[in-house]
Amino acid sequence: MFVKQIDMAKALELAAKGMEIKVLAPIGQEDGWENLAPDTLQHMLEGVMFFRQEPALEKEILPAVSGEEPEPPAEKSLSDLTKELKQARPQKGKLDVDIGKMKALREAGWSYAKIADEMRISVGSVHNHLKQVGEEAK
Fold it and tell me: Beta-carbon neighbour count of residue 118 at 10 Å?
């Protein structure tokens, strides 16, 4: 395999298609090859936030354009905002876990970790469910 230098537009195009793009990134303030470190474009852009400008007039955001006076936002207390936030969050509920399958896999010699991976739950949950089933059987 060989390495070929490409321009930024081509690099972004290929990255958008899922291809890993190699880069040499500066590691200090000095210029020169000895101050460049190998990296990937995806790694360098990890955690970066991207923005684009949107025309504000399209949705009549500005009151001068729409000719209407916007209503001022209602004053809300911290407790009101907290209630709204709690209502907007999805309710935490218990997962529907097939205890019979879990018990059968354990009796077949499967480890807690393997059962947890199969059922997509934590190892601790497997342990707790099987412990609860064992206590109920007594």
Answer: 13
